[in-house]
Design brief:
Structural class: alpha+beta
Strand content: 25-35%
Shape: globular
Helix content: 10-25%
Number of strands: 6
Largest sheet: 4 strands, mixed
Number of helices: 2
């Protein structure tokens, strides 16, 4: 029934952010018309966290080695907005998108729902 997820980044400069995803991160894409690029994102996970405030959504990119990824992206001119820090579930930092947004980048240290380790529940 559900065959994917579509994430939207609202941006002050969508064109610059599209170029960042295409040229800096190297994500594959299709042009949906008039330069409207739709990107193939890496494999994803979804987690639900409790909140005492307003419900919200967050986009976080994952990597296997945070230090190496930060170094590579820094060489490509990416600005990091917070220093890397150790947290209970991994190591995390954040980067600035050209359009002004911020995306967290982290090296997970929690179990990942991949392959044989993932519990599969039959859908509707």
């Amino acid at each position: 029934m559900i065959n994917g997820a579509h994430m939207v980044i609202h941006s002050r400069d969508a064109e610059a952010d599209r170029l960042f995803l295409r040229d800096v991160l190297g994500w594959a894409y299709v042009d949906a018309g008039h330069g409207w690029l739709i990107f193939e994102a890496p494999p994803t996970e979804v987690a639900c966290h409790p909140t005492g405030g307003e419900p919200a959504h967050e986009l976080m990119l994952m990597c296997d080695d945070l230090d190496a990824t930060v170094a590579e992206l820094t060489r490509a001119g990416v600005e990091f907005t917070r220093p890397a820090q150790d947290v209970r579930w991994g190591r995390v930092t954040a980067l600035r998108l050209p359009g002004g947004g911020e995306i967290a980048l982290y090296e997970p240290r929690h179990p990942r729902p991949r392959g044989a380790d993932a519990v599969r529940v039959p859908g509707p």
